[in-house]
Specification:
Blueprint lengths: L1 H31 L3 E11 L7 E7 L2 E4 L6 E6 L4 E8 L2 E10 L2 E8 L4 E9 L1
Antiparallel strand pairs: 1-2, 1-8, 2-3, 3-4, 4-5, 5-6, 6-7, 7-8
Length: 126
């Protein structure tokens, strides 16, 4: 009888562990769905900023970084459901951007408090 109780306890524990691991797996997979290189295009809307820019960002494990040759630092994140927040710094200029991913495309708004500009951006997964 005691052996049967131990076997049942072991089965319950193994089942709980298997459930916990399978419940955590979708979040990891969802996070990685956005991983890759993204081609970004910006468009100014208000303020003295008049140039549009195109550049690449990398997403790995939900963390965003700059993927180019300019002297730029970019950091941010994208959540498993596609909410994006990023800061881009070049010298004394800072741009904060927010947006959302929908499949292989993304879009949002940005603001440059130093230059008092705002704009929009779009991105496509390469």
């Amino acid at each position: 009888m005691q052996i049967l109780r131990h076997a049942m306890r072991a089965t319950v524990i193994c089942g709980a562990l298997a459930f916990t691991q399978s419940a955590m797996a979708p979040a990891a997979v969802a996070q990685e769905i956005h991983d890759g290189i993204w081609r970004v295009a910006t468009q100014p809307i208000t303020g003295p900023c008049s140039k549009s820019f195109e550049f690449s960002l990398a997403v790995e494990g939900g963390q965003i970084s700059y993927s180019g040759i300019w002297p730029v630092d970019a950091s941010g994140s994208v959540t498993p459901i596609g909410v994006i927040e990023i800061n881009v710094v070049r010298g004394k200029e800072t741009v904060a951007a927010k947006g959302v991913v929908r499949g292989d495309t993304a879009s949002g708004k940005w603001v440059s408090p130093v230059k008092n500009c705002t704009g929009s951006w779009t991105a496509r997964k390469a």
